């Protein structure tokens, strides 16, 4: 018999399976409520692909930010620091001589040289010179980067714990070598929210060397949201065809009809969200709305016809080739001025195990001018003051040779123990070099910077205390820097 009290009647008929299912829904509803900060955060204030509410989390920024956005030029495969930035005269003196055991100290390497008995020192294959008033050492393979040396801050004491590509990249991007954590862009989208409603807050673009010299894979979790709601994940802009899939309406579907369909679909989704409290329903609504707005913004974004000829020339001959590093660098500037907060460019091909003599110069030729042009372009438009540009790989390369010394196919193996990156933009000391390696470019000599230190510093520049940006998941609070990290204050302007 049905109880006149519907709550008691419902309790009597609730199965064990339904109870646990409804309990999980309740937790989801609570999470949704906290994410939306109450009913004031309407679905149309949220943007797909890494945009939370316009204002981000309450209380953030924790302190006045130095920059508003980040452009990360991640050089997949690991550029050789001893051939490009970290000039070591000792390598020339020791060339062909076994690197001292006291330097190597039982360090582990990849399987490609882990069992290699002979490890003769390989001198730099480039020529170095000092540039600008800062006197920064840059190789002749990178003349455009050398020309902006006084705008850059070189960190020559980076080190990591990872010796293989995928875990090392994952470590840089998410603070953990294992997939499943939110990427840096997702954390920033979650904490800071969005500055625009017609371009994604977090965008990822990939490119690779034209020769396809290495088989590195771009995994989606490099720009994923991990355990954060998927509204914060990066939007992948493709290098061919439509930049973003499914933006174009089918033939015969008018703009007005599309708007009406989205309004009806949003009403159904909101009703479902109220019933089950699943935050991913709000993500779906936001994705549809962002896609609708991007139908107008993306064609304009990708139209380079309005760019002055001297700007296109600055980025180099590949700038009009979709999917090239040069094209992506110009896209990054255009996204930055339209409000994207984290723009992640990943360029593969730096993995010179057996082709150092040929491929290193090709990689530099493809990436040097566009990287420098991006810094110059941002500066000319007044955007560099509140933009942080980062250039670097997931580790460096060994000062000793991989393979046979002097062979046409000689190379260098992965080297996590010290390497170089550079930064430019707001809040960073220009024309400054921080940290240093030993005489062989093998170990940190002073002022080491760990991956978590690096991440803490980026968050600090954006006005975030890395210890306070957390998300509760599976019973503990997680953060980008895990339980580590110190802000590298000497590099701050």
Question: Please, could you describe this protein's structure?
Answer:
- It is globular and about 75 Å long.
- The chain has 2 domains: 1-36 and 251-295, no CATH class; 46-243 and 302-491, 3-Layer(aba) Sandwich (Alkaline Phosphatase, subunit A), CATH 3.40.720.10.
- Helix 9 (255-276) packs antiparallel against helix 10 (279-301) and helix 12 (325-338) runs parallel beside helix 13 (356-380).
- The chain has 14 helices and 16 strands.
- It has helices spanning 6-13, 16-36, 81-84, 89-94, 101-104, 143-147, 165-174, 184-192, 255-276, 279-301, 309-315, 325-338, 356-380, 451-461, and strands at residues 69-76, 128-131, 136-139, 153-158, 202-208, 235-237, 342-348, 387-392, 396-397, 414-415, 419-425, 432-434, 436-437, 444-446, 471-473, 476-478.
- The chain has 493 residues and is α/β, with parallel strands linked by helices.
- The model is unreliable at 1-14 and 21-53 (pLDDT under 50).
- The strands form 5 sheets. Strands 6-5-7-1-8-11-4-12 form an 8-stranded mixed β-sheet, sandwiched between helices. It has a two-stranded antiparallel ribbon with strand order 2-3. Strands 9-10 form a two-stranded antiparallel ribbon.
Structural topology:
Elements: H1 6-13, H2 16-36, E1 69-76, H3 81-84, H4 89-94, H5 101-104, E2 128-131, E3 136-139, H6 143-147, E4 153-158, H7 165-174, H8 184-192, E5 202-208, E6 235-237, H9 255-276, H10 279-301, H11 309-315, H12 325-338, E7 342-348, H13 356-380, E8 387-392, E9 396-397, E10 414-415, E11 419-425, E12 432-434, E13 436-437, E14 444-446, H14 451-461, E15 471-473, E16 476-478
Parallel strand pairs: 1-7, 1-8, 4-12, 5-6, 5-7
Antiparallel strand pairs: 2-3, 4-11, 8-11, 9-10, 13-14, 15-16
């Amino acid at each position: 018999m049905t109880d006149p009290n519907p709550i008691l009647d419902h309790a009597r008929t609730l199965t064990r399976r339904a109870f646990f299912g409804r309990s999980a829904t309740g937790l989801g509803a609570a999470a949704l409520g906290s994410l939306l900060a109450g009913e004031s955060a309407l679905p149309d204030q949220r943007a797909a692909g890494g945009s939370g509410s316009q204002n981000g989390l309450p209380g953030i920024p924790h302190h006045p930010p130095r920059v508003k956005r980040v452009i990360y030029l991640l050089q997949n495969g690991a550029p050789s620091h001893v051939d490009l930035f970290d000039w070591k005269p000792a390598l020339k003196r020791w060339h062909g001589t076994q690197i001292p055991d006291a330097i190597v100290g039982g360090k582990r390497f990849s399987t490609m040289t882990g069992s290699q008995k002979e490890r003769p020192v390989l001198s730099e294959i480039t020529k170095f010179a000092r540039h600008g008033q800062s006197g920064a050492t840059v190789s002749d393979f990178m003349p455009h980067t050398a020309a902006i040396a006084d705008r850059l801050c070189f960190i020559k004491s980076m080190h990591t714990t990872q010796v293989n590509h995928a875990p090392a990249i994952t470590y840089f991007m998410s603070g953990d070598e294992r997939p499943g954590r939110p990427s840096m862009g997702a954390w920033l989208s979650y904490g800071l929210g969005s500055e625009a409603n017609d371009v994604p807050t977090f965008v990822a673009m990939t490119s690779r060397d034209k020769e396809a010299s290495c088989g590195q894979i771009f995994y989606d979790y490099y720009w994923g949201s991990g355990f954060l709601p998927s509204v914060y994940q990066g939007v992948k802009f493709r290098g061919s065809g439509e930049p973003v899939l499914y933006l174009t309406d089918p033939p015969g579907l008018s703009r007005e009809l599309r708007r009406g369909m989205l309004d009806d679909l949003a009403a159904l989704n909101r009703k479902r969200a109220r019933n089950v409290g699943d935050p991913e329903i709000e993500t779906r609504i936001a994705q549809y709305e962002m896609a609708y707005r991007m139908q107008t913004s993306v064609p304009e974004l990708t139209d380079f016809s309005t760019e002055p000829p001297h700007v296109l020339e600055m980025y180099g001959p590949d700038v009009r080739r979709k999917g090239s590093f040069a094209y992506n660098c110009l896209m990054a500037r255009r996204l930055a001025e339209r409000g994207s907060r984290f723009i992640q460019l990943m360029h593969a091909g730096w993995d010179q195990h057996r082709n150092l003599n040929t491929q290193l110069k090709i990689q530099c030729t493809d990436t040097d001018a566009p990287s420098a042009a991006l810094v110059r372009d941002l500066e000319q438009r007044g955007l560099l003051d509140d933009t942080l540009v980062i250039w670097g790989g997931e580790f460096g390369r060994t000062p000793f040779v991989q393979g046979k010394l002097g062979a046409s196919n000689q190379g260098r193996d992965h080297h996590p123990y010290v390497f170089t990156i550079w930064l430019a933009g707001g809040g960073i000391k220009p024309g400054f070099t921080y940290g240093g390696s030993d005489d062989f470019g093998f170990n940190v000599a002073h002022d080491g910077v760990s991956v978590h230190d690096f991440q803490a510093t980026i968050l600090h520049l954006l006005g975030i205390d890395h210890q306070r940006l957390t998300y509760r998941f599976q019973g503990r609070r997680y953060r980008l820097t895990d339980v580590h990290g110190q802000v590298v204050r000497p590099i701050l302007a």
